[in-house]
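Thread: "does anyone have the structure for this chain?"

Original post by V.I.:
We have the sequence but no experimental structure in hand. Need at least a predicted one for the grant figures.
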Amino acid sequence: MTLWYRKPAPLDAPNRTAPSGTSGGWLQALPVGNGRMGAMVFGGVEKERIQLNDNTLWDGRAQDTTNPEALKHLPEVRKLLFEGRNREATEIAGKYLMGKPAGVKSYQTLGDLWIDTDVAGAAEDYRRALDLSTGIVTVTWRIGDARYKREVFAPLAGPPCIVVHTSCDKPKSVSQSIRISRMEGVRAIRAGGSAISMLGQVGTVPKGSTRGDGMEFAAYVYVDAAGARPQAAADSVAVKNADSVTLVITSETGMNLRGASRDAMQRAVQISIDAWSHGFDSYRSQHAKAFSAIMNRVSVDLRGSASTLDTQHSALSTDERLEAVRKGADDPGLVALYFQFGRYLLLSSSRPGGLPANLQGLWNEHIEAPWNANYHTNINLQMNYWPAEVTNLSECHLPLFDYMEQKLVPSGRRTAQVHYGARGWVVHHLSDVWGATTPMDGVWGIWPMGAAWLAHHPWEHYEFTGDRAFLAKQGYPLMRDAARFMLDYLVEDPKGRLVTCPSHSPENSFFLPDGSTSQFTYGATMDLEIIHDLFTNCIAASKVLNVDPEMRAEMEKALTRLAPLQISQKTGRLQEWIEDYGEPEPGHRHISHMFGVYPGEQITPRATPELADAARKSLDYRLSHGGGHTGWSRAWIVSLWARFCEGDTAYDNLKALLANSTALNLFDLHPPFQIDGNFGGTAGIAEMLLQSQGGEIALLPALPKAWPSGSYRGLRARGGFEAAVDWTDNRAQSATIRATLKNPCTIRAPKGQAIVGVMDGTKRVRANLTGGGSVASWPAEAGHSYVIRFKS
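Reply from O.Q.:
Generated one for you, tokens below.
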């Protein structure tokens, strides 16, 4: 549960925009966060940089970007696409169907805290570590016989802030100078007494004006020195010969306060006062207790054979272990650490009442972040939440639903009506904190499937938690109105089938019969799979709540008329488009037509073997041509192979994710950094160990040979179940299923094993054993734990 290193991260200067490289100091720094504020800790001794974030600090503002011309030209675009005149359709769509303006603004860094420390000699015995169970970064070093410690954390409970505490085991040995900076947008930085304040505004100030129209922000640093008095200079605070120094960093932005920057500073000061009222020791203890209570819900122990690097893991730092994996070594322990790091990142960047994790979670050092660090809805935002339910972080899912309800639905309703004359709400391929929902960037942005895919998540939350009140109040309305849009958006194609039009397979292109390329089409396979998922889930939810029978019937009818998924007669692969097109980039990073395998459930080896075989061939083809070359894409592939129950292949791709797309601090690389690969990788590992789609819980469904022994506790399954499994020699030894709800329970044993009995305490359960004991079913009672016995 610990990432650790033998030296500080290189002290890079802040950059306005992201460099194209895959290394650098920031990608070696260690993250802390509490869902609102975040920090990257470099771990320097003489000079420390702590890069700061407040996830409410964004460029831009809320605005109506709908385009009244879109609806007028939609019929013409559809007609041209059905006639095979893709180039003309693309030209008209690019001219008339885009949002106005067709772009979004960036999430931005708050700035940097700098700590200059007086040292009297060379530092020895250096160690920099992130304890995932407590959420605390600790940097230790020795100078002579004096031992120093710096601790940094973002308190999970209480006011949002960052706490930095430097101490020494020798009295009067801590001397520091503290300052704060930002690359641009700063109006004033002032120091006075025991504090430093920074006021600023995002964006440029128009000529002739003293104020811009961007968001105002404030940051405040309170300095507490034990055994010494802080001394303020113009823009810094110095401490001489203290026993310890504690810094409390707070921030406020115009997103939360509509007043002037003075109001933001007053709020930042008040947050600091509230935070420091606890005192360091009490605050640290409260934070560690709250953090570990959540992180320790799940444990995963993966053990390899005696010949693997895992037996030596205690002697190697995290970067050394990763370098060994890059050279081909197996390290199951590093995989388990990577899994828990993904859980740590989600817990740290997505908390109830706040914003959802963006493309970089909440950690970004730039003014112009890669891809603006915004909310990309053609896979990336959704992938951020793939591990939420199965890895026992259900409450971390809630910010996504609030963002959908509060930001995307109001904007998406207007876009649906203005652009398509449709009911419900729509989101295209990206959005931002302001809730933009119109087509952006280019013609590839005319992909109105974002809301339909996002609506998968409220149903997932209900299936895992059984929270009927959530489903009725928030979940089902989000699903229902996304389905209403799709019912209105579907049109008949020339063969009388219901299809989407226009349509894309996200960011990919294909060859037309005349040899030209196009992205624009109708009825792309992913669209059909997403709609099948949405309508199927919405029908189930309406039955649970006993509502909307007329709409339910409309969706049931639409499903029967939806264009079917197709297998290429030439290649035997699942077609990505409604026609059997060739593709100019067969190793494309997106694998969009795999949605029906994962995260959807439309294609499974047992229920739809022919489609599953065709999907497997498509995945093999994509990989054989260089697919999976981005971190998030490779992470998706891990879950796909897990759904095919091919553990060794899933593990090979997991190793490739670590070796080729992981920075030294374990951040995922596109490159550059995108956090979705971390979350997708964590979800993929969970999918290898436990699956619960299709009405049954599969134990160790994709266990690779590289993990012959191990255990896990606390992974969750649909239906309100929690699982614990131990295995040796790749065979389950015992399993315990804890029921949180009263529901039927169906367990599938690992491949090649049979269940011989189910025990509820000391009482044998009357379980129905089928398939030679490979499946056991019984009615589970809430609060009961069931022990599964296997043949030896």
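V.I.: this helps a lot. Residues 69-105+351-567+593-602 form a domain with the Glycosyltransferase fold (CATH 1.50.10.10).
O.Q.: and The mean pLDDT is 94.
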